[in-house]
Amino acid sequence: MNATVDIWDEFTEGIWRQNPVFVMVLGLCPMLAVTVSAVNALTMGLATLFVLVCSSGLVSMMRKLVPKEVRIATYIVIIATFVTVVDYIIQAVSLALYEALGAFIQLIVVNCIILGRAEAHASKNPPIPAMINAVGMSIGFVIGLFALGSVREILGAGTLFGVSLFGSNFQPWVIMVLPPGGFFVLGGWLLFFSWWARRKQRTQAGRTGEGTQHA
Amino acid sequence: MTQPLIEIRSAPHVKAAKSVETIMRHVVYSLLPICAFYIFQYGISALASILVVTAACLLTERTLISTGTQAGRLSDFSAVITGLLLALTLPPGFPLWMGAVAGIVAIALGKALFGGIGFNVFNPALVGRAFVQAAFPTAIASYTPSFLAGRFTEFIPSSLALPLMMPATAADWLKAKNLDALAGATPLAKWKFDGVMANADELLTSLSGNMAVGPAPALILLCGAYLALRRFMDWRIPVAILGSAALTAWVLFAIDATRYPNPFFMLFSGGLILGAVYMATDMATSPVTPKGMWVYGALIGLLTVVIRYYSGLPEGVMYAILIANAASPLIEKVTQPTPFGRGAGIGRKRASYPLNPGYISREEASAVTPKKRFLHRKPKK
Lengths: 215, 381
Prior knowledge:
The complex is a heterodimer. Chain A has helices spanning 2-17, 28-34, 38-61, 71-93, 95-101, 112-120, 127-157, 174-177, 179-208, and strands at 159-160, 163-164. By secondary structure, chain A is mostly helical. In chain A, strands 1-2 form a two-stranded antiparallel ribbon. Chain A is globular. Chain B is mainly alpha-helical. Chain B is 53% helix and 0% strand. Chain B is built from 16 helices and no strands. Chain B has helices spanning 20-42, 44-66, 78-89, 96-110, 124-135, 137-141, 170-176, 187-194, 200-205, 217-229, 236-255, 263-268, 272-279, 290-310, 317-334, 362-367. Mean pLDDT of chain B is 81; it is low at 358-362. Classes of the chains: A mainly alpha, B mainly alpha. Chains A and B meet through helix 8 of A and helix 5 of B.
């Protein structure tokens, strides 16, 4: 009973409480660069999911073998291996997508979510919880990327997944496909989530009683 | 029986009865003639544009104040000024829904995000304009000539574009009115892209018509003079901006008269006068020290001319003011006057204040007391 709660906890940590994008604000570089459209955002998210889950599992399995002094180098080698795999897979499946994402697939190596998870979680936990946590984290990252990518695509091109939403006479907001648009939308989402979290806190404080009123 | 009353209070003892609200109200008064003449030039499209943009600003301000995210009151008139100025910088035929977007962005992003009135780093109206210029580059560059026949009975077609939809192009509409497409270009764009110069009286009053000019510079100068005389605005900033722009343009004109236009054209075309008188003088975003005002104005004038001459854009006032806004805390810091009694000379000390003042973030300021002070020199032993 207790173990399943822990597993569930590991899984949901990344989706909501420690969402890599909206709570930890990590991995902003691919976040801002590739979220011009929803398809790009999803591909990037899935690539990150693969790399994060595989590397977390491997790092966790090797956690007792790797000396402390060389652990970062080891993690990077492990992550780079999986990034290379994902890089070739995307290139083989869709060249157009590969060109749209550009260097950002290779740059998953230096995505701080992956190294951060390896260092903070996978190196201290057995493989199964580490991988479950990694899946949760990646889903949280995919949600973040998709939230950004869909808004930017809808306003920047009037489409979602390439499907036109407003007809041919739509006026595209050029700024949304430019870097400032990424910052504006990300800021908007951060504002929304912090407002939501604060409201939740307030209703919870109201429910627990009057004692917290003055806190 | 009457006891002599001794009132004890601290300085200042002599003060003018000027509140923020009074100043803002007078700025609105001085803007009204400019708006009226602007409507006379461009007809009901301009009127609708002014009304929609100002309403968008006021609604946003009202919403954000009522949710408690922003300081200030609706009655302080600052949102009205933002709205009017923003509408005056947009083309008269700018689609109304885009104008509303500009107004919302101006208040929400340019002002409320920083904490409301008095806290904004950049001029809110220019933030709104910069946003729509980046978002809708074609719409913001399509001007229509002034004093068209029938301007009070019919809208410029692009004004009435449906929300989120592309506006109709003005070219066909102008052709139906027997005007060539060049009539829709601003004097600056005409000079930059076609090498055609407008003559002086057209620029000054824009009365001769068929010119895509903004609000009349002569009228703006007059209204600005009223504000400066009543001390609602510091005269140094506009004088510094116009002086530095004229000087830079004159030097370049003297070097190569065929390549660069004359300084007069530089001063009275585009939005330089409006920017110098109404935008750059925003009290929250310009330096308070007299020396700082000169530096700030000179920077704007110089940047405007540089952007106009050497960049892809025909007009540079907006970015020049925004850049100078960003630099203004620094300008203020290095132009602090010597306090009375400190004297001049070797032992002279500048007034200094902490690098992270409390008003940036209250939590930070209470958590960390700044130890190092900027520009603070240790006394010599």
